[in-house]
Amino acid sequence: MNAKGRVFKYGDNVDTDVIIPARYLNIADPKELATHAMEDIDADFVKKMQPGDIVVATRNFGCGSSREHAPLVLKENGVSCVIAASFARIFYRNAINIGLPILECEAAANGIDDGDTVSIDFDTGVITNETKGETYQAAAFPPFIQSIIKAGGLLKSLKERGE
């Protein structure tokens, strides 16, 4: 699995209320809900976002409430991966459950800037900042997590396996 895209960079403690504000959680349609992603921190995110683009943040990305809506709206907008120095554990789990790839790599989170072009090899965990010519090493996904992400989420992977 590979990804390549332009980076949207954010700082520490980007919480789930910033990723998808609670005032929109009554919207049932994921595509409509996704039109409000990141609007309180980056009003133009949805307008600028292109399928395959990558979100990079520093520490504790996805902190706050445990809502699965947060990784869902990123995925619905075409985010191919979120890279951060660290993630809130519940966000990490929710992202894997819905099939959104996320990588913890402090060097990449600190070295990559907004607007850089980044490519990722999920099989090896290598993150390449093509703009700067730098590479970073994250832990590669174990095969069972790769199968969940490739299937599009945990439930879809279980259906594929007949469970």
Give the gist of this structure.
This protein is an alpha/beta fold.
Give an account of the 3D structure.
- It is a single chain.
- With 163 residues, this protein is α/β, with parallel strands linked by helices.
- Helix content is 33%, strand content 20%.
- The protein has eight helices and seven strands, in the order E-H-H-H-E-H-E-H-E-H-E-E-E-H-H.
- The protein has helices at residues 16-19, 30-34, 45-48, 69-76, 89-98, 106-111, 143-151, 154-160; strands spanning 2-9, 54-57, 81-84, 102-104, 117-121, 126-129, 134-137.
- It has a seven-stranded mixed beta sheet.
- Strand 2 (54-57), helix 4 and strand 3 (81-84) form a beta-alpha-beta unit.
- Helix 4 crosses helix 5 (89-98) and helix 7 packs across helix 8 (154-160).
- The protein is globular and about 45 Å long.
- The mean pLDDT is 95.
Question: Characteristics of this structure?
Answer:
alpha/beta; about 20% strand; globular
Q: Kindly state the percentage of residues in helix.
A: 25-40%
Low-confidence stretches: none
Total number of helices = 8
The overall pLDDT, averaged over residues, is 95
Q: Which strands sit side by side, in order, in the main sheet?
A: 4-3-2-1-5-6-7
Distance between the termini: 24 Å
Tell me the strand percentage band. 15-25%
Helical/strand content category: alpha/beta
Question: What's the SSE blueprint?
Answer:
Elements: E1 2-9, H1 16-19, H2 30-34, H3 45-48, E2 54-57, H4 69-76, E3 81-84, H5 89-98, E4 102-104, H6 106-111, E5 117-121, E6 126-129, E7 134-137, H7 143-151, H8 154-160
Parallel strand pairs: 1-2, 2-3, 3-4
Antiparallel strand pairs: 1-5, 5-6, 6-7
Helix pairs in contact: 4-5, 7-8
